[in-house]
Amino acid sequence: MNWFVSMAYFIVTILFIFGLKAMSSPVTARRGIVWAGFAMIAATVATFFVADLNNIGLMVLALVLGGSAAWYSGKVVKMTDMPQMVALYNGMGGGAAAGIAAIELVRGADHSAMVATLMVLGAIIGSVAFSGSCVAFAKLQGLLNKPIRLPQQNTINFFLTLLTFGLGLTVGYSDAPSGFSIFLFFALALALGVVLVLPIGGADMPVVISLLNAFTGLAVGFKGFVLGVPMLIIAGIVVGAAGSLLTHLMAKAMNRPIKNIIFTPLSGEAAAGGEGPQGTMRETSAMDAAALMRYGSKVIVVPGYGMAVAGAQHKVWEMAQLLEEAGVEVVFAIHPVAGRMPGHMNVLLAEAGVPYDKIFDLDEINSDFPQADVALVIGANDVVNPVARTDKSSPIYGMPILNADQARDAIVIKRGRGAGYSGIENALFFEENCSMLYGSAQDAVGEIIGHIKSFSD
Ligand code: NAP
To answer: What's the pLDDT tens digit per position in 374-393?
Structure first.
């Protein structure tokens, strides 16, 4: 039986790895999700063959409760709320790993020094992932609106970390740790997660979630060692590695080293110190915007978070098709951190039916902007802010941006004069070749469509 289960775990692991690989491209992503889902079911079924028969009832109950909650929340969650949901699920994984460590500590099981160390590390990392993810959820959900920085924040972080590790190792190496010391250890570890994430600004939050996801993977992997379950070790390492890679890719796309994300906040307050862009924003009408595009030869559409909020992707694709019928070349430029998670815009455009060969990454498209008649920026802000190229004092200096300002004309659709996610004023909006079309993306693009049609009648 054990041989059968080991083989099943082995096949499941291969499926997971290929599933993750397939998710790296929009063309194969759905297939990857099906493989990973199938692997998850197979791993669960295999586990029943080696489980303690006394626990089968509890396992089924946990599966039914957890599975139903996940199924329901996955069905009803809005695409724009996905990062919060990921934060919450991720926190659950970290909490579960910490919970296993708590049980082992309370049981006072006799562990080797290495296993005890891994158990304590898993407990700390899992607790930090749990409480940090809860704070991240509260921030993204708008329950906590401002980054909260304590006086001497970095010193507090340092001593709290030291204290947590010190107490953790004392408890972990002790034969019969007291209930109070175990409680204090977990309270400190949970507090560490809170103080680490509280000061981090909104624009860095998706990176933090990915980092906490990597932490959860690591904590689960350590628990695999403690419990002697290879499947947990492998799954934990795969999640930890994937989370670390994603964190690295996001941080690179924003040109924000991880240490700056954790120790130096990126927020509107940080940006407010500078002079900010000077001049006035020029307003345009849907008719003028439609005419500029309809009588041009190349339009580059830059979608951002606002398009996602408005759910305007179907209308945007309808507009692009109308322009193409009129002989205008239309392509889509995707910034790696447009929206609130990597691939956010690709998923929305794919859902609307935009062919993959019309969607280009930053590196592929950036040199094309000077040849474009119009860069149509739809609900994007930070990812087209030229201060990232020019203003060394700006907190987003060095972040690669889409060169919408280099098109002959830039048209920006947004509801008002609000700043981007990072809270920084956008210099593009004050450029001479830029005009603003105020309104929700869905309505504004709808109006443009009406005018394009009227030109062709
Ligand atoms: P953004 O900077 O958040 O700006 C979105 C803009 O959309 C806002 O200025 C808002 O202006 C507008 N908007 C909101 N609702 C709208 C609606 N219904 N219709 C039209 N416009 C609307 O977006 P972004 O340019 O996509 O940049 C993404 C941000 O997330 C960056 O700061 C990035 O660093 C951060 N981030 C993303 C990731 C990721 O993986 N994607 C990871 C880490 C960080 P109004 O309020 O005036 O309408």
So the answer is: 999 999 999 999 999 988 88
**Are 333 and 360 a contacting pair, CB within 8 Å?**
yes
Ligand 1: residue of 249, 415, 426, 442 to mutate (most ligand atoms within 8 A of CB) is 415
- The tokens describing 415, both together, are 């509801």
Ligand 1 centroid to residue 382 C-alpha, Å? 7
Gap between the Cα atoms of 429 and 384, Å rounded = 10
> Catalytic annotation on 382?
yes
For residues 295 and 457, is the Cβ–Cβ distance under 8 A? no
Ligand 1 nearest-atom number relative to CA 384:
25
> Can you tell me whether residue 68 is helix, strand or coil?
helix
* Cα separation, 1 vs 352, whole angstroms: 48
Please give the Cα distance from 52 to 56 (Å, whole number).
7
Q: Which of 81, 288, 363, 382 is catalytic?
A: 382
The answer to whether 257 touches 243, Cβ cutoff 8 Å, is no
212-265 pLDDT per residue, tens: 999 999 999 999 888 888 778 888 888 899 889 989 988 888 888 888 777 765
What torsion do the CA atoms of 415, 86, 395, 142 make, to the nearest 10 degrees?
Answer: 50
Q: How far is the CA of 309 from the centre of ligand 1 (A)?
A: 9
d(CA 123, CA 171): 11
Tell whether ligand 1 has an atom less than 6 A from the beta carbon of residue 340: yes
pLDDT digits 0-9 by tens, 146-166: 778 888 888 999 999 999 999
Q: Which long-range contacts (CB under 8 A, 24 or more apart) does 284-287 make?
A: 284/411, 284/435, 284/436, 284/437, 285/437, 286/437, 286/439, 286/444, 286/447, 286/448, 286/450, 286/451, 287/451
Which atom from ligand 1 is nearest to the alpha carbon of 421?
Answer: 3
In 254-342, where does DSSP find H-type helix?
Answer: 258-263, 268-271, 286-294, 305-310, 313-325
Q: Is the dihedral of CA 200, 205, 211, 217 positive or negative?
A: positive
Q: Rg (Cα) of the chain, in Å, rounded?
A: 25
306 CB less than 6 Å from ligand 1?
A: yes
Spatial distance between the Cα atoms of 172 and 163, rounded to a whole number of angstroms? 14
Helix (H) or strand (E) holding 444: helix 441-456
- CA-422 nearest atom, ligand 1: 32
- pTM for this entry: 0.79
